[in-house]
Every structure is written in structure tokens, then in C-alpha cells.
Amino acid sequence: KKKKFKKKFFTVKTLYNSFLFCAFKNGKKTQWNFFLNNLFELMSFSLAYSIPIIISKIFIRLFTRVELKKAISRKRISYIPTFIKINRSIFLALKWIFSGALKNTNRTTLRNKLYVELVQLLTNKTCFSLQKLEENNINSFKNRSNMHFRWQRTR
After folding, report:
1. Of 63, 118, 120, 125, which has the highest C-beta tally within 10 A?
2. How many C-alpha atoms does 83 have within 13 Å on its Cβ side?
3. pLDDT in tens, 84-125
4. CA–CA separation, 81 vs 70, rounded Å?
5. Which residues touch 140 (CB under 8 Å, ≥6 apart)?
6. pLDDT recorded at residue 10
7. Smallest Cα–Cα separation from 58: which of 38, 72, 44?
8. Cα torsion for 81, 86, 91, 97, to the nearest 10°?
């Protein structure tokens, strides 16, 4: 019997759910859902875009196909660029967004920090998540000569 593969299409609803599940580790899902709904409504009001367009733009801006992995062989550390799937790319985008919000040292709420990070991302200003994306792309371009090490175990 042949296995049938299901194609995964990412809709705005699945992207929003991934945003929601990455956001909360502890606590109630309904509180985080309310928190993110308020955040995206505030962003749609200030940027004059609808919520699905905002979510789509966020993930299009932070889309990447390459990630660096660390490989150790003969007491030498090599960084190997590897191709990643779309699920990993979405995870990295969310990780960069939340780490950028947490790196913000202003004494404001997490909602305001996320708002600032996402608005800077959408208005083509420099933000932490875009810096991480550019850093990832530059380092993978620099280490492209290590591509033949992909068969080794990476950490």
C-alpha cells in the first residue's frame, strides 16, 4: 500500500494558533487568547490593516529556509547551514519575536513590548527579530563551504 501524504497549507488561523501556543507556557489559554486579540486589534487600528494581513505580513517578513547547526569533529567546531521545513521556520520567527520583546528593557507590560516589536517589524524599522534573521542569513552564507558536513551528527 502506498502512503498518502497530506499537504499542509498554512492558513491565517493556523498561524494565529501557532502564535497563541508559542505565547503561553503557563496559565490559561483564554487569557492569552484575549491578550493576543487585543494586541492584534490595536495593531490593526493603528496600521489600518486587517488582522489576517498583519499575521501574514509578520510571517512573510521573517521567513527563512536555512538554519545554522553546530557540529563538533576532531576538536573543531563547525557551523553547518541546513535546510529547514516550514514548521521550523515558523517556530524560529515566533522565537525571534518573543525574544525581542523580552529583550526590551523598558518598564512596560509584555503587551506593549510585543506591540512595539511587531509594529517595528511591519513598518520596516530595525528590530531584534529582523536583526536575528539577517544574522542567520549572513552566517549561513559565510559558512556555505561547510555544507558537505551535513551528514555528520549536529548538536
Report:
1. 118
2. 2
3. 888 888 889 989 998 999 898 888 888 899 999 999 999 988
4. 9
5. 66, 67, 68, 81
6. 66
7. 44
8. 90
SS3 73: strand
* Neighbour tally for 115: CB within 10 Å: 19
pLDDT < 50 regions, the chain: 155
Instruction: Give the bridge partners for 86, in sequence order.
Output: none
Enter the C-alpha cell of residue 34: 484575549
Query: 138: how many CB neighbours lie within 10 A of its CB?
Result: 10
Q: What cell does 94 get?
A: 515566533
Grid coordinates given for 133:
534573521
Of the candidates 75, 77, 43, the one whose C-alpha atom is nearest the C-alpha of residue 58 is: 43
10 three-class SS:
coil
Confidence at residue 81, expressed as pLDDT on a 0 to 100 scale: 83
Residue 103 · residue 127 · CB < 8 Å: no
- Phi/psi region, residue 66 (left: phi>0; alpha: psi -120 to 50; beta: rest), is beta
Classify 74 in phi/psi space as left (phi over 0), alpha (psi -120 to 50) or beta: left
Strand partners, 82: 67
